[in-house]
Design a protein that fits this description.
Elements: H1 3-34, E1 51-54, H2 65-79, E2 89-90, H3 110-123, E3 131-135, H4 137-146, E4 153-157, H5 167-170, E5 175-176, E6 181-182, E7 200-205, H6 220-232, H7 237-240, H8 243-251, E8 257-260, E9 265-270, H9 287-302, H10 325-376, H11 386-403, H12 407-412, H13 417-437, H14 450-475
Parallel strand pairs: 1-2, 1-3, 3-4, 4-7, 7-9
Antiparallel strand pairs: 5-6, 8-9
Helix pairs in contact: 1-6, 2-8, 3-4, 6-9, 10-13, 11-13, 11-14, 13-14
């Protein structure tokens, strides 16, 4: 093969990889628009254990057998996972992605290839304690196998089924029929009855769109950067990953290293520099310029990610979801406070008014009782004749009857303006009677109301009639 032919072959491979990445990412985003610090994982050395490994999709550059085994060794050493002494066993399968993989339309579709890989892995009958290693599509095969099998240790690199980041979960439930791709969801926790699942290590490089796709699709810069990472970062992990990268991730904080005890899974995120969008410019622009561009671009891109929990299956959305729960109690308290304030204040005012009215009514009742007692205590000889007494009695009883509180007044204990008028009339009548008996006429019987004066005049008339009757009787 001439150098020109080799160059043409590399360009053809790059074009295929780019077309695959762009096609899958763009259709996944379109489908979404329609449907909406822990200890390092270690294991006891087992001399008889076997490592079963699955390669990634046959697209782009393919490492040699030795390169791939070195890659496996780096992943195991960097995560503190002992390597079995037995030779590694490759799980053969098509590893196709028709029509983008090397076999073109002769290869299997992605779904068919994954199903074949699961069958061939089961055929090897991994024993308890065996290690299962998967890269890229091989990690999807291992994730599907893990759903129905227990007792193994998993090391997954650039896993499209990574719960928070992998495209298989970001667009879970979406299918691309003409490509034969089903987004099958996250790597499962295969623990039984609440027990932790099989020990699992999940390694991803930052901005590799297959394993670290944005959470929020509103940011086109982040989406474009992830697609660039599918082409420029993903495949190169097989030769660029180092044990030092894994150690640095473990020391860099929770964005780069997390351990989930419930699923017994440790997550690594290897920092990518510069961001994939700038990688093509590294050989054109000076390093200081690349560094100056990387910082603001990275800040904008990171706004499209939620890195709080890599173990939580997280689908892609266009915008962050608003959490209204913290506002519920505050809003209720704020809205209820002013509504309750007026009735409470009004109640206090009403109680105060009732108390004052009750005191006034009590004082008036005492005055009425005193007037009645004075009237009853008069000597019998000074009393008017029977007829006059009856009229006087009727006149005296009328206000007394009116002074009796009604059921409603007794219920509320509140004096009305009629009660006050009646009280004044009663006092006026009592004073008028006393004045007549003392010979003072009607001078002392004036009240504040016209009705009180009328009652005083009736009382005076009744007294005069009684006196005239006595004189007539004496003349006879």
């Amino acid at each position: 093969m001439t150098p020109r032919q080799a160059g043409a072959g590399r360009r053809s491979t790059a074009v295929k990889a780019t077309a695959c990445a762009f096609g899958v990412a763009s259709m996944a985003v379109a489908g979404a628009a329609l449907i909406g610090a822990a200890p390092t994982l270690t294991a006891s050395p087992q001399l008889l254990a076997t490592l079963h490994y699955l390669r990634g999709t046959n697209i782009g550059w393919i490492p040699t057998q030795q390169q791939y085994e070195d890659f496996i060794g780096v992943a195991l050493d960097g995560t503190g996972t002992p390597a079995p002494d037995a030779p590694y066993e490759e799980v053969p399968y098509n590893a196709g992605f028709r029509p983008f993989s090397h076999g073109g339309f002769k290869d299997l579709t992605f779904d068919q290839s994954v199903a074949q890989g699961v069958q061939n892995l089961e055929a090897q009958q991994p024993a308890a304690g065996d290690l299962i290693f998967g890269f890229s599509q091989g990690a999807v095969v291992a994730s599907q196998y893990k759903k129905t099998h227990t007792g193994n240790t998993y090391v997954l690199v650039e896993n499209p089924s990574r719960p928070n980041g992998g495209v298989m979960e970001r667009f879970q439930g979406l299918t691309i029929p003409f490509l034969g791709v089903t987004f099958s969801g996250a790597t499962p926790n295969n623990g039984v009855d609440g027990a932790p699942g099989d020990p699992t290590i999940d390694i991803a490089r930052q901005y590799d769109g297959w394993a670290d796709f944005p959470t929020y699709l509103w940011n086109p810069l982040a989406v474009a950067n992830a697609v660039a990472g599918m082409v420029l970062v993903h495949g190169n992990t097989q030769t660029e990953l180092t044990a030092a990268d894994l150690a640095a991730a473990q020391a860099a904080g929770s964005d780069y290293y997390q351990h989930d005890a419930a699923s017994n899974t440790t997550y690594y995120l290897i920092k990518t520099y510069p961001v994939p969008l700038l990688i093509p410019l590294e050989h054109i622009l000076p390093a200081p310029v690349i560094a100056a561009l990387d910082k603001p671009l990275r800040d904008i891109i990171e706004t499209a990610y939620d890195r709080s929990d890599y173990s939580k299956p997280t689908r892609a959305t266009f915008f962050p979801r608003v959490k209204p729960a913290p506002q519920t109690e505050t809003v209720d308290a704020a809205t209820s406070a002013p509504v309750a304030a007026d009735p409470v204040a009004g109640t206090h005012s009403l109680v105060a008014q009732k108390t004052t009215t009750q005191k006034t009514t009590t004082q008036k009742s005492e005055v009425q009782e005193t007037a009645v007692q004075k009237t009853a205590a008069k000597p019998a000889e000074e009393a008017p004749s029977d007829g006059a007494a009856q009229e006087q009695s009727a006149s005296d009883d009328a206000p007394s009857a009116r002074l009796r509180p009604t059921t409603r007044e007794r219920r509320h204990d509140v004096s009305t303006p009629q009660d006050e008028q009646t009280n004044r009339s009663s006092k006026s009548a009592a004073s008028q009677v006393k004045s007549d008996d003392d010979g003072s006429g009607g001078a002392g019987g004036g009240g504040d109301e016209p009705s009180s004066r009328a009652r005083g005049e009736r009382s005076s008339g009744a007294t005069d009639s009684g006196t005239a009757a006595r004189k007539t009787g004496s003349a006879a």
